Amino acid sequence: MSETKPAKAPSGPRIREVPAVSRAIAILRLLGRGQGPMTLKAIAEELGMVTSTCLHILRVLVSEGLVKVDGSSKRYSLGVGMLALARNVLETSPFPSLVQPVLDKLAQEDNITAIGVEITGLDHMVVLALSRSRAPFRLHVDVGSRFPALLSATGRLVAAYADIDDAELERRFKSLRWDQPPDMEAWRKEVDTVRRKGFSIDRGNYIDGVALVAVPVFDARGRLSHSLVGAALANHMSAARALDLAKRMQAEAEALSQMMAR
């Protein structure tokens, strides 16, 4: 008779849901997407909230300065209080100031959009810095943009260097949204290649027609903490050019890793 193995206990502390906090965060993220000021009705409908509940939360956010409301149009947008929070994040992390000159150099020399990303565990990655190219190509990303951690080229880095079992990896992979979704088995092979070569290339999977090259930046303990990403139109990024870019980005990332470890 075969024994049933006990289910693996979830790692980390148990998180108890606090609906009011989750809703307030959802409102801030919605207003932060850059769609412009929104009415109470639009916010409530977009987030599936009861209008009265949404109004009470908005009033608190307005009183704290995190959201502002136009008295005439009754439209809501992010308030200046968000700037103090964002400034504190940027000032307490050395990465944005260290990586910006690197991104500017890559964008100018290679005519790409260069991005500095912070990886926050297995859940999300956040753009901390970027430099745009001179090309008439604009990637819809800004400082503060937030994406699932396993998505795109950086996602392959996360999968390659994270301590995660196959079942959990597959579960998270199936929840990702791609323009051209890669096959799970092919994606796993690409992740294995990342472990051997130390860089990742996404050619049109995440965004159709866009090539992304990503290299890892490690913290003082040798853990993946950030990534450098280069983005360009796929038809302007040949395989040879992508490989050359990846090698040069690796050298920059290694230098950043050493500076971050000091």
UniProtKB/TrEMBL annotation:
<dbReference type="GO" id="GO:0003677">
    <property type="term" value="F:DNA binding"/>
</dbReference>
<dbReference type="InterPro" id="IPR011991">
    <property type="entry name" value="ArsR-like_HTH"/>
</dbReference>
<keyword id="KW-0238">DNA-binding</keyword>
<dbReference type="InterPro" id="IPR001845">
    <property type="entry name" value="HTH_ArsR_DNA-bd_dom"/>
</dbReference>
<keyword id="KW-0805">Transcription regulation</keyword>
<feature type="domain" description="IclR-ED">
    <location>
        <begin position="81"/>
        <end position="262"/>
    </location>
</feature>
<dbReference type="GO" id="GO:0003700">
    <property type="term" value="F:DNA-binding transcription factor activity"/>
</dbReference>
<dbReference type="InterPro" id="IPR029016">
    <property type="entry name" value="GAF-like_dom_sf"/>
</dbReference>
<dbReference type="InterPro" id="IPR036390">
    <property type="entry name" value="WH_DNA-bd_sf"/>
</dbReference>
<keyword id="KW-0804">Transcription</keyword>
<feature type="domain" description="HTH iclR-type">
    <location>
        <begin position="18"/>
        <end position="80"/>
    </location>
</feature>
<dbReference type="InterPro" id="IPR005471">
    <property type="entry name" value="Tscrpt_reg_IclR_N"/>
</dbReference>
<dbReference type="GO" id="GO:0045892">
    <property type="term" value="P:negative regulation of DNA-templated transcription"/>
</dbReference>
<protein>
    <submittedName>
        <fullName>Transcriptional regulator</fullName>
    </submittedName>
</protein>
<dbReference type="Pfam" id="PF09339">
    <property type="entry name" value="HTH_IclR"/>
</dbReference>
<dbReference type="Pfam" id="PF01614">
    <property type="entry name" value="IclR_C"/>
</dbReference>
<dbReference type="InterPro" id="IPR036388">
    <property type="entry name" value="WH-like_DNA-bd_sf"/>
</dbReference>
<dbReference type="InterPro" id="IPR014757">
    <property type="entry name" value="Tscrpt_reg_IclR_C"/>
</dbReference>
<dbReference type="InterPro" id="IPR050707">
    <property type="entry name" value="HTH_MetabolicPath_Reg"/>
</dbReference>
